[in-house]
Amino acid sequence: MYPAFVVSPMDFSLSTLSEKFKQLASSFSVKDGESVLGIDIGTSSIKIVQVKEVKGSAVLETYGEIALGPYANAEVGQSVMPPPEKIGEALKDVLREANATAKVGGFSVPLSGSLINVITLPTKDHADLATMIPIEARKYIPVPITEVALDWFVIPDEEAKFLSPQGGAAKSDHSTDVLLVAIHNAVLAKYQLVTEAAAITPRFFEVEPFSMGRASYEHTTAPAMIIDMGASSTRVYIIEFGIIDVSHTIGRGGQDLTLSLAKSMGATFQEAENIKRDKGLSESEVGSAALDFIFAEARRILLTYQRKEGKAVSQVVLVGGGASLKGLKEVASRSFDARIVIASPFEKLAAPAFISDVLKGAGPSFASAVGLALRALHQ
Ligand SMILES: Nc1ncnc2c1ncn2[C@@H]1O[C@H](COP(=O)(O)OP(=O)(O)OP(=O)(O)O)[C@@H](O)[C@H]1O
Ligand SMILES: [Mg+2]
After folding, report:
1. 219 with 242: CB under 8 angstroms?
2. Do 297 and 238 fall within a single domain?
3. Any domain includes 295
4. Residue 234 CA: which ligand 1 atom is closest?
5. How far is the CA of 376 from the centre of ligand 1 (A)?
6. 14, 87, 184, 255: which one has the fewest Cβ atoms less than 10 Å from its Cβ?
7. Are residues 243 and 303 in the same domain?
8. Which helix or strand (DSSP H or E) is residue 265 part of?
9. Which among 161, 185, 209 is the end of a domain?
């Protein structure tokens, strides 16, 4: 019912490129893989990415973003909570606008709706794990197992041997460490309404920092900090060996930058949002108080971690729409000694070279969606 306001990345619809993609795909002799989606439902917008495997490479077929504000009588860029049916409608709209054809995919869920544990199981046989895990999970999950959906990953031995005993990882030649993620059914019930409304079959639900991590940096043995700058809040994670060691929510996000800009200029939210996206911080330092607060908190979290663990965080990876702010890298580098990386998740996908600048600019907010799409290719 609502006119779909599609934010900038969609203005550059990949439909114009579909012919080129077809040529690209048909130039390979192997049979094409199935097209799959990564779907990230944020509080200010939905991001979708469709990929397909061609000759062992993950090829970007299309992508799109749609603001949720207009589905909840609010502005583009505002953080909103429309009912699931409205979110489903927005998802349908963005899939149509992007000419997405896939009907299956992975969805992200916030870390807050999940429980994560590292457990050790007395087998090396992956087939046994599938039967053991639901039984073993009961010991770790404080609610009936029927109230959660379980997801799990085997932690490779070379990574597991570094885990502390408190992490549950006591290695032996006959055991396997597993990262166990339980997502509460109440969270999934909402997604079910969304997926039904949009006629998409969810293949899995993944906790957000995992999908972001997969798409936004090269894993090293040193811990990395991921700062996800969303609309109403910023989430900070420290990840080591694929395990989330630390997670915090900072109660300021991109919306706060827009609000201070609007107030100081006497402009509407929409006008200020457009100025912020076009000009970034170079034109105006307004809004930087919110940014300073975010980085001061993130720095405090990083320093506390380093002191407690006696390890240095090697890189700070900025993701989320807020990470597209012009001039952000310079501001961030004042707060951290570590290498600052603005996530460029589309680099993980094959795409025509002439759109690489567009993809780089749009990249940070698609980190989750790209990570989900990459996992969906193999699941
Ligand atoms: N080019 C840009 N420059 C500055 N800020 C931007 C730019 N593009 C988007 N943003 C800001 O990014 C924020 C939205 O980020 P994102 O899409 O990651 O949030 P979300 O996923 O909807 O929210 P959340 O993760 O908190 O649920 C908004 O505040 C928006 O103004
Ligand atoms: Mg988000």
Report:
1. yes
2. yes
3. yes
4. 26
5. 24
6. 184
7. yes
8. helix 254-265
9. 185
78 lines ligand 1 (CB under 6 A): no
Q: Which among 44, 63, 108 is the best mutation to test ligand 1's pocket, defined by most ligand atoms within 8 Å of the CB?
A: 44
Check whether residue 247 and residue 291 sit in a common domain: yes
Q: Decide: 8 in ligand 1 pocket, CB within 6 A.
A: no
**Successive 10-residue mean pLDDT values, the chain, 379 residues:** 30 34 38 88 97 94 96 94 95 97 95 86 86 89 86 74 47 79 89 94 92 88 94 95 89 93 90 90 67 95 96 96 93 93 95 87 94 93
* Burial (CB count <10 Å: 0-12, 13-18, 19+), residue 158: exposed
Domain count, the chain: 2
What pTM was estimated for this model as a whole? 0.86
Of residues 26, 93, 104, 101, the one with CA closest to residue 62: 101
Q: What is the pLDDT of residue 117?
A: 86
Angle between helices 254-265 and 288-309 (to 10 degrees): 150
CATH at 274: 3.30.420.40
Statement to judge: residues 171 and 222 lie in one domain? no
Substitution site in 48, 66, 247, 324 for ligand 1 pocket (most atoms within 8 Å of beta carbon) = 324
Element (H, E) at 257: helix 254-265
Residues 228, 161 share a domain: no
Domain that holds residue 272: 218-342
Q: Are 323 and 226 in contact (CB under 8 A)?
A: no
